[in-house]
Amino acid sequence: MAPQIRRLQVAVSGLGRMGARHANHFLHRTPRAELVAAFSPDPKEIEWAKEHLEPWGVKLYTEFDEMLKHEGLEAVCVATATTVHAEQTIKAIEAGKHVLCEKPLSTKLEISQQVFDTAARHPHTKVMCGFSRRFDASYLSAYNLARSGSIGRPTILRSQTCDKYDPSGFFVAYAQFSGGIFVDCNIHDIDLALWFFSADNGGAQLPKVKSVVAFGVTALEPDLAKYGDVDNGVGVVEFWDGQIAYFYSSRMNPPGQHDMTEIIGTTGKLSVNANPTTGLLESHLATGIHRDIPQNYYERFEGAFVEEARQFTDAVLDDKPVPVDLAGSVEAVKIGVALQDSLRSGKKILFDRDGKRVDEDGFARAKL
Amino acid sequence: MAPQIRRLQVAVSGLGRMGARHANHFLHRTPRAELVAAFSPDPKEIEWAKEHLEPWGVKLYTEFDEMLKHEGLEAVCVATATTVHAEQTIKAIEAGKHVLCEKPLSTKLEISQQVFDTAARHPHTKVMCGFSRRFDASYLSAYNLARSGSIGRPTILRSQTCDKYDPSGFFVAYAQFSGGIFVDCNIHDIDLALWFFSADNGGAQLPKVKSVVAFGVTALEPDLAKYGDVDNGVGVVEFWDGQIAYFYSSRMNPPGQHDMTEIIGTTGKLSVNANPTTGLLESHLATGIHRDIPQNYYERFEGAFVEEARQFTDAVLDDKPVPVDLAGSVEAVKIGVALQDSLRSGKKILFDRDGKRVDEDGFARAKL
Amino acid sequence: MAPQIRRLQVAVSGLGRMGARHANHFLHRTPRAELVAAFSPDPKEIEWAKEHLEPWGVKLYTEFDEMLKHEGLEAVCVATATTVHAEQTIKAIEAGKHVLCEKPLSTKLEISQQVFDTAARHPHTKVMCGFSRRFDASYLSAYNLARSGSIGRPTILRSQTCDKYDPSGFFVAYAQFSGGIFVDCNIHDIDLALWFFSADNGGAQLPKVKSVVAFGVTALEPDLAKYGDVDNGVGVVEFWDGQIAYFYSSRMNPPGQHDMTEIIGTTGKLSVNANPTTGLLESHLATGIHRDIPQNYYERFEGAFVEEARQFTDAVLDDKPVPVDLAGSVEAVKIGVALQDSLRSGKKILFDRDGKRVDEDGFARAKL
Amino acid sequence: MAPQIRRLQVAVSGLGRMGARHANHFLHRTPRAELVAAFSPDPKEIEWAKEHLEPWGVKLYTEFDEMLKHEGLEAVCVATATTVHAEQTIKAIEAGKHVLCEKPLSTKLEISQQVFDTAARHPHTKVMCGFSRRFDASYLSAYNLARSGSIGRPTILRSQTCDKYDPSGFFVAYAQFSGGIFVDCNIHDIDLALWFFSADNGGAQLPKVKSVVAFGVTALEPDLAKYGDVDNGVGVVEFWDGQIAYFYSSRMNPPGQHDMTEIIGTTGKLSVNANPTTGLLESHLATGIHRDIPQNYYERFEGAFVEEARQFTDAVLDDKPVPVDLAGSVEAVKIGVALQDSLRSGKKILFDRDGKRVDEDGFARAKL
């Protein structure tokens, strides 16, 4: 019998590391979605898609604009290089497509703002930035506990993003376009701070940043300095209403990926992944007790990415708000960029109560 | 475009608790399989299926034999009540269908053996008993380590199956048909013992049982005694070649499901789930540090059930041996039944080297 | 100023591995006790004592009977080889000394009983068998929770004693005198079962053993078979009032000492050392996350031994009951010996409600 | 027989919470030391001492200067209120006594420096500030691993000191004299940073502070603001040679004391107490799995305080360097005070390569 279920017609743009995964999630793990098209400018990625997507009925495109015209297409998942996230998202919105865009919207605040403004002009189009960590089961449980008041008022948030060291030099090359460690890695932690610090109002109002400061070192990759980047960063973000978030990011965690977060409220603390592990196995050997941890962020967050695809699909099909508010995603870029600036200048950066950045030397910057 | 992928045409028999889940796994989470049909004799289950399966193109049947005739059907997942597992499996095999049968094959050894014999007469038909625990990522990692020699020779295995207490009396009603706690719960642990104790020969040869003994109490449900069953059981199984497995099962674990296994080899120990948890979240509250554990076996083993469906599908499509050998599944029933007998009689039960059970009172006990 | 505190005048008998530690505990870590004398028949141990005890004012003896006559001596800690525990304890009691005797009282039930009978004839003399595990902070907390009803009725107890493998052959030589793995190692676990299963009556009444069965293998030390011993043992003890204890012991745990216990009650479980570690340090290295565990029982239970000395001293000075009741220590030997017998005979051993052992073949053994 | 062992003749000054503990440690748990005298100006504390110290031969004094004249006195443990630490330490040094002084030397840098200068003029006198955490077994293991190169170069250190919330208002009253949360709590974490960041040179050279910045909130105790203090503080300390330490302190951790530290090197990370617990017990109850953590710093660090007393005693008797170098203890005060200043001013505070503080407004900031 032919299925009678309406499924969201989705295309994925970009079939690199993360794009290929998104394609698989929409193709095989999102029952209410149907992957109908995919775009990549890269012949190698198209080769991969011919083997893994085309046989399942997915139409392949080498031009993004062509793909947008795919008949019946309803939504696009933008998973290309960060530098074109915003451009493709804007085009897709303007073509009337719903968009799930990989984080960050852009490494630049102005451009992120343009995405937001475009979306605001298309109120019926769902636009969501893919902060995958929010869809992880442990973070979701933590959020529900925080929201229900289990820990009193969330006051301090500590969060870290630590990648396994990759000795190939990849991180150096990547630093040219990544926006730097605070925009690339800690953007997740910043988003978590915005999420948890607005848990008591159900996300209705974002906390207002007051100041940021950042520090960093190049412990293993001195060449990162060329791009004003570091391989270990520490940042602190202070909010106007008595909340503080502090972050750590690293490109040199030896056993693998160790992302963790503590949300500290006035009556309790929620700790996500303080005690990392890949699963439930420990080896008791002559050299002691051993366990493994995920080797990369996808091993850690695979389930979250799948859940993200499902919740985005549900939001579109059922016309509900997307679970990650776009204003917060722009705010995360603002804070990430400010941290990166602080890292480079060595200065503490201040914001007024309206969210406008004011230089330490006193005058308000009219336009960032 | 129409997909060009060949997908295994699967039906699920039985749409109760576990059957409904299997149906969902084949429908939405097994890319190379297509759920085409489903059978249930129960109007409530058919009602559920009309809502959740039919719209996706699944044909519903209220007669098992009719379902077997579904055009193009290649494989059946048998997930009905334990009492009809064997009958349906045999029918399906004889109709030329590959079968994934929920555990146990039967609560009776003779009937399990009939399944095995039927399968033996159809060597091109894949028949697998669904010992889901083998498909759990942590158990798979443990097995690979054991197989590669990381812990020397697997010598002692400790394994437990502990369910959350259900005060509704469900366990008492269920005991009539379940075969008893050793056949219903510890069958998994027995299967793990057979699996790990044959890891050094790659599963080519099962370890030979030498004796079993079992004990039990009815701590919370005295009515279980009516069915010769208990709510807490302890059993020991000795093998002829210097290996011992010991088991615990319980129907009264307060926080939830806690199934765990330790495989102790001559140079190391693998410990699966010694430190249970649902995820990576801990709450630090005034009352101490808290974490949750899964509330039932499906919360614990959901991923394993999905993986089981995938591996069964691959074995059929690619004509590879199924990952759970049927002879071992019969042996597991033999050992489970013997444990249950020992529980009831209070006797230690012995087996000769050919696997024949010899009574303690002397009969047929030529030479141990 | 001269101290005005009355301190218990203690002697230690035997200055081997454990005796030397007891001497140090009474000398330096038991404020209300004063180590005044020590005995060893071994010149090497006397050599050690000349360096470590004599300078602190401890008088050394090479004859046990001479030491008993030491002026003002009030109490003796018997820490010699197991074979002379009972003889020295009896002599010391008869000389009017309070006794803390290392476990087990004897590897023979009759002799343990003689110690008990002697103590019973000297009701003002405190006699305690040193089941150190009872003084460990985690076990004490568990007991207090069990006693207060936190887990309902203690019903199942699982406990293990696992030593680090010692490739020197020490365990083989030791097996000649140790009484076997169940009497030497699991005696602790048996004692814990007696302790926790009488928690609901405050220790007033010991649970009554109904049957025992044991299994074992020689995985690394086949020569143990000469002494009817094994390097891995599994035993089950059933009690008349619906309680079951099951034990594991091993001489081949690669990372070190792993002794653990679970006390399972009708409404909760207490788990001691499911997740072993030496302290609070973990290393995150390229090979994964690692931690160490104690290398031997003294590393694990050092604090318990000190606490044992303190509580024994307090019981004597304040004329309170000793915290480990002697009747239970005899019962532990009875159960341990029965397990060892079951291991050797392959038979399940039964006891009647009066605690008398009855052979499987029917007749009651008049005198064990 | 009379002991022939030479024991260090020690007095304790101050018998409050911590002083009474030090007295007990020197009296009962430091074999090579003899507590001969104790001083307190407080009648209640003297009352306590009459019961607990005097009977053991300890002479009590109500005048510090009188106590210093106690015949044969060799060493003083200064455990009075922080405000008189320095004064008493200086007096004791000048009277030729070795000194173990509780942390911090002072809440003021100048006064800490005076202690250092006095000690420098008495090179044969041992003076040590009691940074107890360094004597904890887990920290000692971590240090030995770091020193031996197991984690490459220590680069980032994260450390926190979190007290259980005390609703009595104690923390507010205490804030008047404590120097603030960074000087009172994080001083330990600062000391750890200095210790671990000089591990690669064996402590020969302290890392040079480059800048500090601090943030804080009063989440539960707004009255702390009167004293320029907070109940939650976050601080970052940057060093000139590419190392960063970041700290958190809190007065509101609900389950108890949670002090933890991560030392992140170029090839590994050492994690101390990421997974806090009081011992090896977990309760599996209907509400989940639970464990307790220490209720205060003494429960957490009791063993470390005892070890501190022992190592100080050994250093004096064997004329070895004290294990905590005094220069570092002054440096810790300098950094703690700067963090407290940054908290109050909202400014980042800079230091030149000679360790001189330079104001952000430009003064003395010749060349950074």
From TrEMBL, chains A, B, C, D:
Domain Gfo/Idh/MocA-like oxidoreductase N-terminal: 9-128
One biological process term in Gene Ontology: NADPH regeneration
Entry protein name: NAD(P)-binding protein
Any single Gene Ontology cellular-component annotation: cytoplasm
Keywords attached to this entry: Oxidoreductase
Residue ranges the record marks as coiled coil: none
UniProt key word Oxidoreductase: yes
Residue ranges occupied by any GFO/IDH/MocA-like oxidoreductase domain in the UniProt entry: 141-270
Protein family: Belongs to the Gfo/Idh/MocA family.
Presence of keyword Cell division: no
SUPFAM superfamilies: Glyceraldehyde-3-phosphate dehydrogenase-like, C-terminal domain, NAD(P)-binding Rossmann-fold domains
Record-level Gene Ontology MF annotations: nucleotide binding; oxidoreductase activity
